[in-house]
Design brief:
Elements: H1 7-41, H2 44-51, H3 55-61, H4 65-81, H5 93-110, H6 112-123, H7 130-153, H8 162-178, H9 180-187, H10 194-211
Helix pairs in contact: 1-2, 1-4, 1-6, 2-3, 4-6, 5-6, 5-8, 5-10, 6-8
């Protein structure tokens, strides 16, 4: 049988897809285990069991627990910052800021474990990702803050501190993941329903946009959860 010239490329693409799928599966499992047990309490065996993969697979894709932990943190930060790229000089302030808030709220709802792992890292002084915070994160926030400052100077939004606006958005959105137990206890529910998540999102969006002098959504009514 004569192989098609495309066969090697096809095989490589297939292997690449398998690798990506396995890495994503491992990272998702690692988020859950690190969130529950912390870095010290987590084991590669527990993560492998959560991922439904042999332990050897974890060491193949991630050499050590430290490498896997660092990858979880880096991926979380990347996913959190991706929506911020829509904040550009030519963008509409309300559209861009609202989209960023909604994306952060969605990530808190879909991947709460990742947020808790990240928060725990920061509470311990960020020993693993301090350099990343002081470089990549700082550079992006300063660049996007400069855009917001331009919008303010142009009279497109109310005067706010651009850097602290990001801190406010992070605190308001990540609290629904990091302090979900507290939120649920106060609301008297076992977990936040999709309706509760939607209500929380509309509240955060409306509050922050109004604080920025932008017209926020006004879909809240009553106090039902």
């Amino acid at each position: 049988m004569i192989s098609s010239p495309d066969t090697p490329a096809t095989d490589d693409a297939g292997k690449g897809q398998i690798r990506q799928a396995n890495e994503a599966r491992i990272l998702a499992a690692a988020e859950r285990v690190f969130a529950g047990a912390g870095f010290a309490g987590a084991t590669m065996a527990a993560i492998a069991e959560a991922a439904g993969l042999p332990k050897a697979n974890l060491h193949y894709y991630f050499g050590s627990k430290q490498d896997l932990y660092r990858s979880v943190l880096a991926q979380t930060l990347t996913d959190w910052l991706e929506p911020a790229h829509a904040i550009t000089p030519d963008a509409d302030p309300k559209t861009a800021i609202e989209a960023y808030i909604r994306a952060k709220m969605a990530l808190s709802a879909l991947r709460p474990h990742a947020s808790r792992v990240f928060a725990n890292e920061l509470l311990h002084g960020a020993p693993v990702i301090k350099t990343l915070l002081a470089s990549h994160l700082r550079e992006l926030v300063l660049a996007k803050s400069a855009v917001i400052a331009q919008w303010i100077s142009a009279g497109k939004m109310a005067p706010v501190d651009p850097v602290h606006l990001f801190f406010t958005i992070w605190a308001a959105t990540q609290t629904y993941a990091d302090f979900e137990v507290q939120v649920c206890a106060v609301m008297g529910v076992a977990e936040l329903s999709p309706a509760s998540q939607t209500r929380a999102t509309e509240h955060v969006v409306s509050l922050i946009l109004r604080g920025c002098g932008l017209r926020g959504s006004n879909t809240l009514s009553g106090f039902a959860s």
